[in-house]
Amino acid sequence: MNFKYLVVAICLFFFTGTILAQEYSFFSDSDNQTYYDPSWLFKTSPSELLIINSSKFPVDVITFHSGTNSLKLQWKSVSGGDWGTAIAAPGWPGRDITIMDTLSFWIYSTSSMADSLLPKIYLEDLSNQKSSKINLSEFQEDIPASEWMNVKIPIQAFIDNSGSADLTRVKTIFFGQGIADNQQHTLFIDDIKMTGNTNNEYKFIVILGSSTAAGTGANPVDSSWVNKFRKNLMTLDSTYRVINLAVGGYTTYDVMPTGFVPPNGRPLPKQYNNITYGLSFNPVMILVNLPSNDAANYYTLTEQIQNYDTLISIAYRNDIDIYVTSPQPRNFTNSNQMNLLLGMVDSSFTLYSSIAVDFWNGIAQANGFIKPEYNSGDGVHLNNAGHHKLFERMSQRVLPVLVDVSEIISATESYFQLKQNYPNPFNPSTTISFILPKNTFVNFTVYNILGEKVSELYNGEMSLGEKQIIWNGLNDDNKNVSSGIYIYRISTPEKHLSGKMILQK
Length: 505
Known about the structure:
CATH topology of the largest domain: Rossmann fold
Shape: globular
CATH class of the largest domain: Alpha Beta
Helix content: 10-25%
Strand content: 25-35%
CATH superfamily of the largest domain: SGNH hydrolase
């Protein structure tokens, strides 16, 4: 057994106040007493695997660690065959596991089992890319008969074996074929979760939303507005992490706080995708993107506004910045649905003008339909071009609030510094000073707030000492740029430093 990883997992969860940890639950209990719905199984002969309802994970109601049931994994691994089981959280969301510490679950066998016979485990992201397979025997000794055992796997083990998977968007946990012993085995699995400590160097942005925020319509999913926003923000400031809790089909009721009692016929809040769960990350900002599902379900304008007011008040009580997007266009043919949508668009800009992000104008036609150039083809979701529009709108609205001068100074190179430009704001030119601790290669580039390159001011070798670079407000084509916020970035083989400046004409 390999004990190279040592993890201490803390699992504390509070609604308000100081929150130390959070968790991602992949399985706690199945509503269906026969199979677990957010799952997918496959087998390749001659290997065997117990599968229910064509492709689902069987559930056992006799043997379980907690709740009313567990997952029943029954297999025979044969040379030349293969099998695998995918387990997801309800809604199949993508989770950023790089901020988590531990994957844990309970396993049970009616007969003793050598650790070498345990399955492999691996992860899959929203693009169906998989991590490398890891032997469970690295983290669990032999299984005694009729005794629940708690398996704990440090997330670092998956980071070290990430393969082609994007670990910021993990969708499923796979158990898969291990040693081919040609024998039937049965394991009961329960309470699958990841836990993580938020007391670290990261600043969290939590996104609450539905299918657009979840990436629907974008192809590949990296083209979604959330993932483009995440990438750009982390490029500008690597201490940020974006936690996307959006799930397709969600309405304002789904993201209400835990304990909220909705009117009859309205859905209960979703425990692991609502604002209460979002608070467990101790975020600096919450972004709400709920495009049109409330209108699709005929929820009244009063209901929608009350729910938005609830989200906003919770954020403010916890001293968290919050921004809400306007609804997005949708090809409603039902006039009542369209009137509800248009009513919420107006309310977004009138009631929430100081925190509203415009996801409507320039994307919607006069009749409220999606402009053809932004329609993914279903009349509901936006294509890559549409997602890029949303990315631009969100970036222009919130990045100036988030991005500031960032100095990363190591202990061994304590005088490597990037200073604030002067003057700032400026017109027509500004001077940027920095100190290099040694002769090195330097790239100095100016970007706009969307992360697009504006002007490369220097690219080559530079001697040590205090230096200055002047930017005259021109792009690489020697044309004047417009007023606005720009990011200056110095890069060496060892470091990347950035700062924010304002051109004011």
